């Protein structure tokens, strides 16, 4: 019975012991774990700062896409003329670009792919100086004498050379000799053909006075004037051409600036809007 009675006492005191132990452990745990709850909140804070989401969100802020510059002039309202230079770049290109800088005039260059590959720095300077650029075939082939698919391949190859030299992707094409047809344009529907309505005949006459007379006298609002990068007399005539056109009240702009919106591809133009 002694066994049973002592077992009974043990049994009776067991809950008490468990209770005391429990309270002791609880009290002990209240003293010790003071630190973990304190250090726990600091850890997530450090994690947040370690990921630096603030810095990531800051990155796009300093590089907002620049607002496109408004057109200098609205050529649908004001009479404009676009001077264009074909066949370059050439040995005369740097002198021509110097002259244009002096005059403060922006023009459009229709470069061949081959000359672009030979003188990429001149094409780069054309673009950096604010002039417009387009392609003029790879090597001055008459595009209507090859298949429309070949004509497009030629135009693309030329555009690629211009992009490589200047970083600019152009879809403007001036077909050599002004020679194009509907099949070609349909096949190259991502390009726009830019012709001209004023021919200075500079390549034929090499006469500065005649070149000036054509450029100034034959121009109307929206005219596109054909000259050549390769004709020294056109550079010689340039100051009097610019003065004469300004005297007649024309704004001098690049070909894309003739329109007040981007020119849609798949078209052909001999001139821009005839303002006034
Ligand atoms: Ni040409």
What would a concise description of this structure say?
By secondary structure, the protein is α/β, with parallel strands linked by helices. The chain has helices spanning about 1-30, 35-50, 55-60, 95-105, 115-120, 120-130, 150-165, 180-185, 200-205, 210-215, 230-245; strands spanning about 80-85, 110, 130-135, 170-175, 190-195, 200, 225-230, 250-255, 270. Helix 4 runs parallel beside helix 11 (about 230-245) and helix 10 (about 210-215) packs parallel to helix 11.
How much of the sequence lies in strands comes to: 5-15%
Structural class: alpha/beta
How would you state the average pLDDT, rounded?
83
Poorly predicted spans: 1-61
CATH class of the domain at 80-269: Alpha Beta
Q: How helix-rich are the residues, as a percent range?
A: 40-55%
CATH third-tier fold name of the domain at 80-269: TIM Barrel
Using only C-alpha atoms, the radius of gyration works out to 38 Å
Keywords for this structure?
276 residues; TIM Barrel; six-stranded parallel β-sheet; disordered N terminus
Structure commentary:
The protein contains eleven helices and nine strands. It has 276 residues and is an alpha/beta fold. The protein has a domain at 80-269: TIM Barrel, CATH 3.20.20. The strands form two sheets. Strands 1, 2, 3, 6, 7 and 8 form a six-stranded parallel β-sheet that branches. The protein has a three-stranded parallel β-sheet with strand order 4-5-9, with no helix packed on it. The N and C termini lie far apart (128 Å). The protein binds nickel (II) ion. Nickel (II) ion binds at residues 86-87, 136, 140, 176. Nickel (II) ion is lined by residues 86-87, 136, 140, 176.
